[in-house]
Amino acid sequence: ILILGIESSCDETAAAVVKNGREVLSNVISSQIDLHKLYGGVVPEIASRKHIEKINQVIEEAMEEAKVTFEDIDAIGVTYGPGLVGALLVGVAEAKAISYATGIPLVGTHHIEGHVSANYIENKELEPPFLCLIVSGGHTHLVIVKEYGKYEIIGRTRDDAAGEAFDKVARAIGLGYPGGPKIDALAKEGDGKAIAFPRAHIEGAPFDFSFSGVKSAVLNHINHCEMKGIEVNRADIAASFQEAVVDVLVSKTMAAAKEYGMTKIALAGGVASNKGLRRGMELACKKHGLSLFYPSPIYCTDNAAMIASAAYYEYKNGTRHGLDLNAIPNLKIGQRQ
Ligand code: ATP
Ligand code: MG
Ligand code: FE
Protein backbone atom coordinates (compact mmCIF):
# COMPACT_ATOMS: atom_id res chain seq x y z
CA ILE A 1 0.00 0.00 0.00
CA LEU A 2 1.40 3.38 -1.04
CA ILE A 3 0.27 6.55 0.73
CA LEU A 4 0.92 10.10 -0.42
CA GLY A 5 1.16 12.21 2.75
CA ILE A 6 0.52 15.97 2.73
CA GLU A 7 1.30 18.28 5.67
CA SER A 8 0.72 22.05 5.97
CA SER A 9 -0.49 22.62 9.55
CA CYS A 10 2.11 25.20 10.56
CA ASP A 11 5.23 26.47 8.82
CA GLU A 12 6.41 23.41 6.90
CA THR A 13 4.97 22.54 3.49
CA ALA A 14 5.64 18.82 3.16
CA ALA A 15 4.82 15.80 1.02
CA ALA A 16 6.01 12.21 1.23
CA VAL A 17 5.37 8.79 -0.27
CA VAL A 18 5.43 5.93 2.24
CA LYS A 19 5.00 2.20 1.62
CA ASN A 20 3.04 0.08 4.12
CA GLY A 21 3.25 2.79 6.77
CA ARG A 22 6.95 2.29 7.47
CA GLU A 23 9.10 2.52 4.35
CA VAL A 24 9.80 6.10 3.24
CA LEU A 25 10.19 6.41 -0.54
CA SER A 26 10.42 10.21 -0.39
CA ASN A 27 10.15 12.93 2.23
CA VAL A 28 10.16 16.51 0.91
CA ILE A 29 9.98 19.41 3.36
CA SER A 30 9.92 23.09 2.44
CA SER A 31 10.44 25.01 5.67
CA GLN A 32 9.39 28.64 6.09
CA ILE A 33 11.56 29.15 9.18
CA ASP A 34 13.77 31.77 7.52
CA LEU A 35 10.71 33.88 6.74
CA HIS A 36 9.08 33.63 10.16
CA LYS A 37 12.22 34.17 12.19
CA LEU A 38 12.22 37.78 11.03
CA TYR A 39 9.10 38.15 13.21
CA GLY A 40 10.22 35.94 16.11
CA GLY A 41 7.49 33.37 15.48
CA VAL A 42 5.05 31.98 12.93
CA VAL A 43 2.85 34.61 11.23
CA PRO A 44 -0.31 32.72 10.16
CA GLU A 45 -1.14 34.85 7.11
CA ILE A 46 2.39 34.51 5.72
CA ALA A 47 2.32 30.76 6.39
CA SER A 48 -0.87 30.25 4.36
CA ARG A 49 0.41 32.27 1.41
CA LYS A 50 3.72 30.42 1.36
CA HIS A 51 1.99 27.02 1.50
CA ILE A 52 -0.05 27.98 -1.58
CA GLU A 53 3.13 28.94 -3.42
CA LYS A 54 4.99 25.74 -2.55
CA ILE A 55 2.53 22.90 -2.28
CA ASN A 56 2.32 21.79 -5.93
CA GLN A 57 6.07 21.77 -6.31
CA VAL A 58 6.61 19.89 -3.05
CA ILE A 59 4.11 17.18 -4.05
CA GLU A 60 5.64 16.86 -7.52
CA GLU A 61 9.10 16.45 -6.01
CA ALA A 62 7.87 13.82 -3.56
CA MET A 63 6.25 11.83 -6.39
CA GLU A 64 9.34 12.12 -8.60
CA GLU A 65 11.75 11.12 -5.88
CA ALA A 66 9.63 8.09 -5.05
CA LYS A 67 9.43 7.31 -8.80
CA VAL A 68 5.66 6.92 -8.68
CA THR A 69 2.63 8.36 -10.46
CA PHE A 70 -0.88 8.90 -9.08
CA GLU A 71 -1.81 5.48 -10.52
CA ASP A 72 0.48 3.86 -7.95
CA ILE A 73 -0.98 5.72 -4.96
CA ASP A 74 -3.60 3.90 -2.86
CA ALA A 75 -4.63 6.81 -0.64
CA ILE A 76 -3.86 10.42 0.13
CA GLY A 77 -3.29 11.17 3.81
CA VAL A 78 -3.63 14.85 4.64
CA THR A 79 -3.34 16.71 7.94
CA TYR A 80 -6.74 18.31 8.72
CA GLY A 81 -5.94 19.39 12.30
CA PRO A 82 -4.83 20.57 14.71
CA GLY A 83 -2.99 23.62 13.41
CA LEU A 84 -3.46 27.05 11.87
CA VAL A 85 -6.76 27.06 10.00
CA GLY A 86 -5.50 28.93 6.93
CA ALA A 87 -2.41 26.74 6.71
CA LEU A 88 -4.38 23.50 7.13
CA LEU A 89 -6.88 24.55 4.45
CA VAL A 90 -4.14 24.70 1.81
CA GLY A 91 -3.21 21.04 2.30
CA VAL A 92 -6.81 19.90 2.68
CA ALA A 93 -7.96 21.73 -0.49
CA GLU A 94 -5.00 20.35 -2.43
CA ALA A 95 -5.64 16.78 -1.26
CA LYS A 96 -9.33 17.06 -2.10
CA ALA A 97 -8.53 18.40 -5.57
CA ILE A 98 -6.16 15.50 -6.28
CA SER A 99 -8.65 13.00 -4.89
CA TYR A 100 -11.46 14.48 -7.02
CA ALA A 101 -9.34 14.49 -10.17
CA THR A 102 -7.85 11.01 -9.75
CA GLY A 103 -10.40 9.09 -7.68
CA ILE A 104 -7.73 8.24 -5.07
CA PRO A 105 -9.34 7.79 -1.61
CA LEU A 106 -8.84 10.56 0.92
CA VAL A 107 -7.80 9.91 4.52
CA GLY A 108 -7.88 12.95 6.81
CA THR A 109 -5.08 12.61 9.35
CA HIS A 110 -4.44 14.01 12.82
CA HIS A 111 -1.18 15.99 13.00
CA ILE A 112 -0.25 14.84 16.52
CA GLU A 113 -1.12 11.22 15.74
CA GLY A 114 1.30 11.75 12.86
CA HIS A 115 4.03 12.81 15.31
CA VAL A 116 3.39 9.59 17.28
CA SER A 117 3.50 7.50 14.08
CA ALA A 118 6.91 8.95 13.16
CA ASN A 119 8.21 6.28 15.55
CA TYR A 120 7.06 3.49 13.22
CA ILE A 121 9.29 4.64 10.37
CA GLU A 122 12.70 3.66 11.73
CA ASN A 123 11.66 1.31 14.54
CA LYS A 124 10.25 -1.52 12.44
CA GLU A 125 9.66 -3.69 15.52
CA LEU A 126 7.64 -1.07 17.42
CA GLU A 127 3.98 -2.02 17.75
CA PRO A 128 1.25 -0.91 20.17
CA PRO A 129 0.66 -0.98 23.05
CA PHE A 130 3.22 1.57 24.20
CA LEU A 131 3.42 4.78 26.20
CA CYS A 132 4.18 7.91 24.15
CA LEU A 133 5.44 11.23 25.47
CA ILE A 134 4.35 13.85 22.94
CA VAL A 135 6.41 17.04 23.24
CA SER A 136 5.84 19.38 20.31
CA GLY A 137 5.61 23.12 19.71
CA GLY A 138 1.94 23.29 20.68
CA HIS A 139 1.23 20.08 22.61
CA THR A 140 2.49 18.11 25.59
CA HIS A 141 0.70 14.85 26.31
CA LEU A 142 1.30 11.46 27.82
CA VAL A 143 -0.75 8.97 25.81
CA ILE A 144 -1.15 5.23 25.76
CA VAL A 145 -1.22 3.97 22.20
CA LYS A 146 -3.50 0.97 22.73
CA GLU A 147 -3.71 -0.12 19.10
CA TYR A 148 -2.90 1.58 15.81
CA GLY A 149 -5.09 4.68 15.79
CA LYS A 150 -6.42 4.12 19.35
CA TYR A 151 -5.18 6.57 21.98
CA GLU A 152 -5.86 7.16 25.65
CA ILE A 153 -4.64 10.49 27.00
CA ILE A 154 -3.43 10.08 30.59
CA GLY A 155 -1.73 13.46 31.05
CA ARG A 156 -1.45 16.87 29.43
CA THR A 157 0.02 20.30 30.01
CA ARG A 158 -2.07 22.78 31.98
CA ASP A 159 -0.44 25.79 30.30
CA ASP A 160 2.53 26.05 27.91
CA ALA A 161 3.64 23.16 25.72
CA ALA A 162 7.22 21.96 26.19
CA GLY A 163 8.34 23.33 22.81
CA GLU A 164 6.63 26.62 23.50
CA ALA A 165 8.57 26.92 26.78
CA PHE A 166 11.83 26.27 24.93
CA ASP A 167 10.92 28.92 22.34
CA LYS A 168 9.95 31.52 24.98
CA VAL A 169 13.08 30.98 27.08
CA ALA A 170 15.22 31.14 23.96
CA ARG A 171 13.66 34.48 23.07
CA ALA A 172 14.28 35.77 26.61
CA ILE A 173 18.00 35.04 26.34
CA GLY A 174 18.18 36.40 22.80
CA LEU A 175 18.58 33.19 20.83
CA GLY A 176 15.88 33.75 18.21
CA TYR A 177 13.28 31.45 16.63
CA PRO A 178 12.88 28.48 16.80
CA GLY A 179 14.56 28.33 20.16
CA GLY A 180 14.52 24.62 20.96
CA PRO A 181 17.55 23.57 18.90
CA LYS A 182 19.49 26.68 20.02
CA ILE A 183 18.88 26.01 23.73
CA ASP A 184 19.86 22.39 23.12
CA ALA A 185 23.21 23.48 21.61
CA LEU A 186 23.95 26.20 24.18
CA ALA A 187 23.05 23.89 27.10
CA LYS A 188 26.13 21.80 26.28
CA GLU A 189 28.34 24.74 27.23
CA GLY A 190 26.56 25.44 30.51
CA ASP A 191 26.10 23.89 33.95
CA GLY A 192 22.68 22.28 34.43
CA LYS A 193 23.05 22.55 38.21
CA ALA A 194 24.00 26.26 38.21
CA ILE A 195 20.46 27.61 38.74
CA ALA A 196 17.71 25.73 40.60
CA PHE A 197 14.67 26.29 38.37
CA PRO A 198 11.38 24.80 39.65
CA ARG A 199 10.07 21.34 38.72
CA ALA A 200 6.27 21.58 38.66
CA HIS A 201 4.26 18.72 40.14
CA ILE A 202 0.50 19.07 40.21
CA GLU A 203 -1.43 17.91 43.26
CA GLY A 204 -3.73 15.02 42.38
CA ALA A 205 -2.69 14.92 38.70
CA PRO A 206 0.63 13.05 38.61
CA PHE A 207 0.78 12.88 34.80
CA ASP A 208 -0.14 16.49 34.02
CA PHE A 209 2.49 19.10 33.23
CA SER A 210 2.98 22.82 33.77
CA PHE A 211 5.80 24.80 32.16
CA SER A 212 4.74 28.38 32.75
CA GLY A 213 6.39 28.38 36.20
CA VAL A 214 9.83 27.42 34.96
CA LYS A 215 9.51 29.95 32.13
CA SER A 216 8.64 32.73 34.62
CA ALA A 217 11.51 31.63 36.87
CA VAL A 218 13.92 32.11 33.96
CA LEU A 219 12.53 35.62 33.29
CA ASN A 220 12.78 36.47 37.02
CA HIS A 221 16.36 35.21 37.12
CA ILE A 222 17.30 37.43 34.17
CA ASN A 223 15.60 40.48 35.76
CA HIS A 224 17.31 39.78 39.07
CA CYS A 225 20.75 39.58 37.40
CA GLU A 226 20.14 42.80 35.48
CA MET A 227 18.97 44.67 38.61
CA LYS A 228 21.98 43.53 40.61
CA GLY A 229 24.35 44.18 37.74
CA ILE A 230 25.38 40.51 37.64
CA GLU A 231 26.33 39.20 34.21
CA VAL A 232 23.69 36.85 32.79
CA ASN A 233 25.24 33.46 32.01
CA ARG A 234 23.15 32.35 29.06
CA ALA A 235 24.72 28.90 28.79
CA ASP A 236 23.98 28.16 32.46
CA ILE A 237 20.39 29.36 32.01
CA ALA A 238 19.95 27.15 28.93
CA ALA A 239 21.47 24.12 30.68
CA SER A 240 19.57 24.61 33.94
CA PHE A 241 16.26 25.28 32.18
CA GLN A 242 16.69 22.22 29.98
CA GLU A 243 17.58 20.06 32.95
CA ALA A 244 14.49 21.23 34.87
CA VAL A 245 12.20 20.44 31.93
CA VAL A 246 13.86 17.09 31.20
CA ASP A 247 13.67 16.05 34.89
CA VAL A 248 9.90 16.55 34.91
CA LEU A 249 9.34 14.88 31.55
CA VAL A 250 11.42 11.85 32.50
CA SER A 251 10.07 11.36 36.04
CA LYS A 252 6.40 11.63 34.96
CA THR A 253 6.95 9.28 32.03
CA MET A 254 8.58 6.71 34.30
CA ALA A 255 5.75 7.03 36.85
CA ALA A 256 3.15 6.60 34.10
CA ALA A 257 4.92 3.54 32.69
CA LYS A 258 4.85 1.96 36.15
CA GLU A 259 1.22 2.89 36.83
CA TYR A 260 -0.02 1.53 33.47
CA GLY A 261 2.37 -1.42 33.22
CA MET A 262 3.97 -0.19 29.99
CA THR A 263 7.34 -1.62 28.95
CA LYS A 264 7.83 0.39 25.74
CA ILE A 265 8.28 4.18 25.72
CA ALA A 266 8.25 6.37 22.62
CA LEU A 267 9.01 10.08 22.24
CA ALA A 268 7.28 12.28 19.66
CA GLY A 269 7.28 15.90 18.44
CA GLY A 270 10.00 18.47 17.89
CA VAL A 271 11.32 18.39 21.46
CA ALA A 272 11.89 14.62 21.08
CA SER A 273 15.06 15.57 19.20
CA ASN A 274 16.42 17.34 22.30
CA LYS A 275 19.71 15.70 23.27
CA GLY A 276 19.21 16.23 27.00
CA LEU A 277 15.77 14.62 26.87
CA ARG A 278 17.04 11.64 24.87
CA ARG A 279 19.94 11.11 27.26
CA GLY A 280 17.74 11.49 30.36
CA MET A 281 15.15 9.06 28.98
CA GLU A 282 17.81 6.57 27.93
CA LEU A 283 19.31 6.48 31.44
CA ALA A 284 15.92 6.18 33.13
CA CYS A 285 14.65 3.48 30.74
CA LYS A 286 17.82 1.48 31.26
CA LYS A 287 17.43 1.75 35.02
CA HIS A 288 13.79 0.62 34.90
CA GLY A 289 14.27 -2.06 32.25
CA LEU A 290 12.10 -0.31 29.62
CA SER A 291 12.71 -0.07 25.88
CA LEU A 292 12.93 3.41 24.42
CA PHE A 293 12.09 4.54 20.89
CA TYR A 294 12.39 7.92 19.22
CA PRO A 295 12.53 9.18 15.63
CA SER A 296 15.54 10.77 13.91
CA PRO A 297 15.42 14.58 14.22
CA ILE A 298 14.07 14.98 10.66
CA TYR A 299 11.01 12.87 11.62
CA CYS A 300 10.58 14.62 15.00
CA THR A 301 9.71 18.04 13.60
CA ASP A 302 6.94 18.50 11.05
CA ASN A 303 7.11 16.27 7.98
CA ALA A 304 4.69 14.38 5.75
CA ALA A 305 6.21 10.90 6.11
CA MET A 306 4.76 10.72 9.63
CA ILE A 307 1.37 11.80 8.24
CA ALA A 308 1.51 9.08 5.57
CA SER A 309 2.41 6.53 8.26
CA ALA A 310 -0.54 7.52 10.47
CA ALA A 311 -2.80 7.61 7.39
CA TYR A 312 -1.76 4.06 6.45
CA TYR A 313 -3.08 2.65 9.73
CA GLU A 314 -6.24 4.78 9.46
CA TYR A 315 -6.71 3.50 5.90
CA LYS A 316 -6.34 -0.09 7.13
CA ASN A 317 -8.89 0.67 9.86
CA GLY A 318 -11.32 1.68 7.10
CA THR A 319 -11.21 5.47 7.40
CA ARG A 320 -12.20 7.30 4.18
CA HIS A 321 -13.11 10.96 3.92
CA GLY A 322 -15.30 12.67 1.34
CA LEU A 323 -14.87 16.00 -0.37
CA ASP A 324 -16.58 17.57 2.65
CA LEU A 325 -13.39 17.04 4.69
CA ASN A 326 -12.68 20.31 6.48
CA ALA A 327 -9.78 21.77 8.43
CA ILE A 328 -10.35 21.48 12.21
CA PRO A 329 -7.87 23.80 14.01
CA ASN A 330 -8.46 22.30 17.48
CA LEU A 331 -8.93 18.64 16.50
CA LYS A 332 -8.47 16.44 19.60
CA ILE A 333 -6.38 13.27 19.68
CA GLY A 334 -8.63 10.37 18.77
CA GLN A 335 -11.34 12.72 17.42
CA ARG A 336 -12.50 12.03 13.85
CA GLN A 337 -14.55 14.15 11.45
P1 ATP B 1 2.42 20.98 17.03
O1 ATP B 1 3.00 19.75 16.44
O2 ATP B 1 2.12 20.88 18.49
O3 ATP B 1 1.30 21.52 16.24
P2 ATP B 1 4.70 22.25 15.86
O4 ATP B 1 4.32 21.43 14.69
O5 ATP B 1 5.00 23.67 15.68
O6 ATP B 1 3.55 22.11 16.97
P3 ATP B 1 6.91 20.49 16.12
O7 ATP B 1 7.13 20.51 14.69
O8 ATP B 1 6.58 19.19 16.73
O9 ATP B 1 5.89 21.59 16.61
O10 ATP B 1 8.22 20.97 16.82
C1 ATP B 1 8.65 22.30 16.83
C2 ATP B 1 9.04 22.57 18.26
O11 ATP B 1 10.11 21.71 18.65
C3 ATP B 1 9.52 23.99 18.47
O12 ATP B 1 8.94 24.48 19.66
C4 ATP B 1 11.04 23.82 18.63
O13 ATP B 1 11.65 24.80 19.44
C5 ATP B 1 11.12 22.46 19.29
N1 ATP B 1 12.41 21.80 19.09
C6 ATP B 1 12.97 21.41 17.92
N2 ATP B 1 14.20 20.89 18.13
C7 ATP B 1 14.41 20.94 19.47
C8 ATP B 1 15.50 20.57 20.33
N3 ATP B 1 16.61 20.03 19.84
N4 ATP B 1 15.36 20.80 21.65
C9 ATP B 1 14.22 21.33 22.16
N5 ATP B 1 13.19 21.71 21.40
C10 ATP B 1 13.27 21.52 20.08
MG1 MG C 1 7.42 24.00 12.30
FE1 FE D 1 4.04 19.41 14.69
What does this structure look like?
The structure is a single chain. The protein has 337 residues and is of the alpha/beta class. The chain is built from eleven helices and ten strands. Strands 3-2-1-4-5 form a five-stranded mixed β-sheet, sandwiched between helices. It has a five-stranded mixed β-sheet with strand order 8-7-6-9-10, sandwiched between helices. Strand 7 and strand 8 form a beta hairpin. Helix 5 runs parallel beside helix 7 and helix 6 crosses helix 8. The longest helix is centred in the C-terminal third of the chain and has 27 residues. The radius of gyration is 20 Å and the shape is globular. The two termini are 23 Å apart. 50% of the residues are buried. The protein binds adenosine-5'-triphosphate, magnesium ion (MG) and fe (iii) ion. One of its GO terms (molecular function) is tRNA N(6)-L-threonylcarbamoyladenine synthase activity. Its cofactor is Fe(2+). It comes from Anaerosporobacter mobilis DSM 15930. Belongs to the KAE1 / TsaD family. This is tRNA N6-adenosine threonylcarbamoyltransferase.
